[in-house]
Structure formats: C-alpha cells, structure tokens
Amino acid sequence: MKQKLDSMSKSPLYGKSPDEILEHFKKYNFVDDHGHKLALCQDFIDLVKLSTK
Are 19 and 25 in contact (CB under 8 A)? Predict the structure, then answer.
C-alpha cells in the first residue's frame, strides 16, 4: 500500500486544484472523434472537481 501512495505523491496532479488539473490536461490537447476538446467536456470537468474533494 505504501508503494501505491508514494507513486501517487509523485504525480504532477497530486495536491493540485481543479483549475490547475484542467490546465494540465489542456496542454495535451486531447480531442474526441468529433474534435471536441476533453478539457471543455462538462463530464470531465465534473470528474476533476469530484476527484479533488
């Protein structure tokens, strides 16, 4: 279990705010098959917010 926690703490997303996480993913410029950007998807935004509570 400790190894899992150690690797999480080395993540560039660890301890970041939802806005900082969204900015991180915007840099990757992920898009779906229709060209919609991941960082603008409301489901993704909601997931980021839930994961940082």
Answer: no
